[in-house]
Design goal:
single chain; 266 residues; alpha+beta; Creatine Amidinohydrolase; 5-stranded antiparallel beta sheet; 5 helices; 15 strands; 30% helix
Length: 266
């Protein structure tokens, strides 16, 4: 069942989405070599609760943390742990908040210290592919148009692996709603989008092949070839002529540039 949102509901989702963005901006200030992902998780939870919301992910289907933090070859759903981050790591942080009855859900991949040029390129192309997908989130287009835009850019143009097992999704009163929003597919297929549809678009792109596996914790998804992966996610409302972006990377990118421990040159 696909739920189309009223203008009032869209504004409540926007508030939740922007709080996720603000939390990720705090992460961009906090990240540095030597800290652990458990410390990042604790900081993010405190910030979310201090702002009157609760973490969407905590205890969701048994997930025990506030944030999914996936390092290097971990694609998504990584468990925060006590391993110290180091120079050269790439760190994907995926967060959700629940506030005023509605969820927000966004993700960003950070580069600690100096990373190889090929990994910089992966981050840049993955982020660009997100916006290629967002551009297609207009009334009258189909879900497959979003999927095709992401796949065409990342896989066909750059030869990266597009993860098949995990997809974007609808968003609202529930964290995951219909429709599913894949990052691969054919133009002109899938649900025809109407105004008021709110979706999370989230390319999960591997430097190497598309194949992944689940780690022993049952949650962390890793690349089979051990190469790094990138993940970016925006919340979008479908409108008639152009998409309405409900989340924002502006403050995240500003803090990323201001943090000398992060590489924002990609």
């Amino acid at each position: 069942m696909v739920y189309y949102k009223t203008n009032e509901e869209i504004e409540l989702i926007r508030k939740s989405s922007l709080l996720v963005s603000a939390t990720l901006a705090e992460v961009a200030k906090f990240l540095k070599p030597g800290i652990t992902t458990l410390q990042v998780d604790a900081m993010a939870e405190q910030f979310i609760r201090d702002n009157g919301a609760v973490p969407s992910f905590k205890n969701y289907k048994g997930f025990p943390f506030t944030s999914c933090i996936s390092v290097n070859d971990a694609v998504v759903h990584g468990f925060p742990n006590n391993i110290e981050l180091k120079d050269g790591d790439i760190v994907s942080v995926d967060l959700g908040v629940f506030m005023n009855g509605y969820h927000g859900d966004s993700a960003y991949t950070f580069a600690l210290g100096s990373i190889p040029d090929e990994v910089k390129k992966l981050l840049r192309v993955t982020k660009e592919s997100l916006y290629k997908g967002v551009e297609k989130a207009v009334a009258g287009n189909r879900i497959g148009d979003i999927a095709f835009a992401v796949q065409e850019y990342t896989e066909r143009q750059y030869g990266y692996g597009v993860v098949r097992e995990l997809v974007g999704h609808g968003l609202g009163r529930h964290l995951h709603e219909d429709p599913q929003v894949p990052n691969f597919g054919k133009r002109g297929t899938g649900l025809k989008m109407k105004e008021g549809l709110v979706i999370a678009i989230e390319p999960m792109i591997n430097l190497g092949k598309k194949d992944v596996y689940y780690d022993t914790d049952g949650w962390t998804v890793r690349t089979k070839d051990g190469k790094p992966a990138a993940h970016y996610e925006h919340n979008v409302c479908v409108k008639k002529n152009k998409p309405d972006l409900l989340s924002s990377f502006t403050a995240i990118e500003a803090n990323e540039k201001a943090n000398n421990n992060l590489d924002s040159s990609y």
